[in-house]
């Protein structure tokens, strides 16, 4: 066995694959040196074959493939979030957990994927197995009292039930998650009392009148208590609780409604932000948490965590930038941010924020260019001069978007950051006066 203690790049050289008596495989360089611990050709062949198999499955059985991929990585929330985002890009909908349909793992359902109960926090395998067994034996759960009455409280405790409610697993029973949560404590106490009666052989009057005993699963459910009616959670609170239980949003996302329109402004995704290390980029993000920091000099700065549909990244807003945009760096804020991706080490990436703007305030200048005008050098020069003049020495923040092509075959292209303008209305007027077709637009419709 040879231990590698140093590696020196030798450029491109001819190499020879050899076998040695110990059955280790090494590469022999043309100067007689041995490059130890290198993989042989059969290893590369195996990887190539596996790549072919997975590519085939993804192309021909995309729903089944993605369901298996998410299940295999269900313990890694970052990967799950990234794969769910990939599903959206493949037009595969990932449905929230469902007490009446979900199995243990993520499961294909026609052209959709059903979230597995094993991905719900605080719900143990014993509870999942009890739910599935009861469902197979006695059919669908019809109400919260039905669920609590059929499943032993030692398997499915109150904390697990709260998680199932807040992640949407009981939406097929009642869409009002807030009402279910308010009912929960009353129903759990009621179910525990019924369980004790059954163990003592007593049963209650309504059970006896309804047909009696353990063989009547619906008997007495009408006696279950119910809390006073309440409105469902507001949308943002509903999503917050969902994320708290699952680790990410599943039924919706605060950035989902602007996903398509924001791509042209910020084409990078946080799920692959490491690919942009040491580069200046922009991204559409939501602030999840913020840690406010005071430097030794007494200056304020912040360390927020950003997320989008594909993943999360830690960011830093240094004092100079914080003085300008600190009021925007708040939990749940939706922002377009500009800055640099900094690689701290092999496993850690940090987004250094230089500027930010609330997406509700983002305005755009849209310029329609037919193919002939777009390829005309003279027209390009005229357009460039207008944008340079309107950019006010590169202090503008409003992006300019070109709409290229004929109707029905159009695509959007963003001009570089050096062409961001200061006043959208002034820029549009200047473009129209010069004979261009232009208009203002908002990222988020009013």
Summed up, what is this model?
With about 450 residues, the chain is an alpha+beta fold. The protein has a five-stranded mixed β-barrel with strand order 7-8-9-11-10. It has a four-stranded mixed beta sheet with strand order 14-13-12-15. A three-stranded antiparallel beta sheet has the order 1-2-3, with no helix packed on it.
Descriptive account of the structure:
- With 446 residues, the protein is an alpha+beta fold.
- It folds into 3 domains: 62-246, no CATH class; 260-360, OB fold (Dihydrolipoamide Acetyltransferase, E2P) (Beta Barrel); 362-442, no CATH class.
- Helix content is 35%, strand content 21%.
- It has helices at 41-60, 62-72, 77-89, 125-138, 144-150, 158-166, 177-200, 205-209, 235-246, 259-262, 319-325, 371-375, 377-390, 424-433; strands at 15-19, 25-29, 34-35, 93-95, 107-109, 112-114, 280-294, 300-307, 312-316, 334-345, 348-358, 363-369, 400-404, 411-414, 437-442.
- The strands form 4 sheets. Strands 7-8-9-11-10 form a 5-stranded mixed beta barrel.
- A hairpin with a 4-residue loop joins strand 8 (300-307) and strand 9.
- It is globular, with a radius of gyration of 30 Å.
- 27% of the residues are buried.
């Amino acid at each position: 066995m040879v231990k590698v203690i140093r590696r020196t790049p030798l450029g491109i050289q001819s190499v020879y694959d050899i076998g040695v008596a110990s059955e280790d495989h090494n590469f022999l360089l043309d100067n007689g040196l041995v490059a130890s611990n290198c993989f042989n050709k059969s290893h590369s062949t195996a990887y190539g074959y596996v790549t072919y198999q997975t590519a085939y499955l993804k192309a021909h059985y995309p729903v089944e493939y993605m369901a298996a991929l998410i299940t295999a990585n269900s313990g890694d929330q970052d990967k799950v979030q990234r794969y769910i985002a990939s599903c959206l890009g493949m037009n595969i909908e990932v449905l929230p957990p469902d007490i009446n349909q979900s199995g243990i793992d993520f499961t294909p359902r026609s052209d959709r994927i059903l979230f597995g109960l094993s991905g719900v926090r605080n719900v143990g395998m014993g509870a999942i197995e009890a739910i599935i067994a009861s469902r197979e034996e006695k059919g669908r759960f019809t109400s919260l009292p039905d669920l609590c009455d059929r499943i032993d409280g030692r398997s499915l405790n109150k904390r697990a039930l709260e998680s199932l409610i807040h992640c949407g697993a009981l939406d097929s029973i009642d869409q009002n998650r807030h009402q279910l949560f308010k009912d929960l404590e009353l129903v759990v106490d009621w179910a525990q009392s019924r369980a004790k009666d059954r163990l003592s052989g007593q049963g209650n009057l309504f059970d006896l009148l309804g047909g009696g005993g353990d063989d009547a699963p619906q008997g007495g459910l009408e006696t279950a208590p119910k809390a006073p009616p309440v409105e469902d959670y507001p949308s943002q609170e509903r999503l917050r609780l969902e994320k708290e239980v699952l680790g990410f949003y599943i039924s919706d996302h605060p950035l989902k409604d602007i996903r398509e329109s924001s791509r042209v402004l910020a084409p990078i995704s946080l799920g692959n932000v490491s690919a942009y290390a040491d580069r200046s980029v922009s991204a559409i993000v939501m602030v999840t948490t913020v840690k406010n920091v005071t430097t030794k000099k007494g200056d304020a700065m912040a360390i927020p965590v950003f997320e989008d549909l594909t993943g999360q990244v830690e960011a830093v807003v240094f004092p100079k930038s914080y003085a300008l945009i600190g009021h925007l760096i708040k939990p749940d804020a939706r922002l377009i941010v500009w800055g640099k991706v900094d690689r701290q080490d092999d496993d850690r990436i940090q987004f250094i924020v230089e500027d930010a703007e609330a997406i509700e305030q983002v305005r755009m200048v849209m310029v329609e260019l037919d193919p002939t005008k777009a390829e005309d050098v003279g027209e390009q020069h005229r357009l460039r001069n207008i944008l340079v003049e309107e950019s006010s020495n590169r202090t503008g923040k409003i992006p300019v978007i070109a709409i290229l092509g004929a109707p029905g075959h159009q695509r959007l292209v963003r001009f570089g950051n050096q062409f961001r303008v200061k006043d959208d209305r002034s820029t549009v007027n200047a473009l129209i006066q010069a004979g261009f077709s232009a208009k203002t637009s908002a990222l988020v419709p009013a």
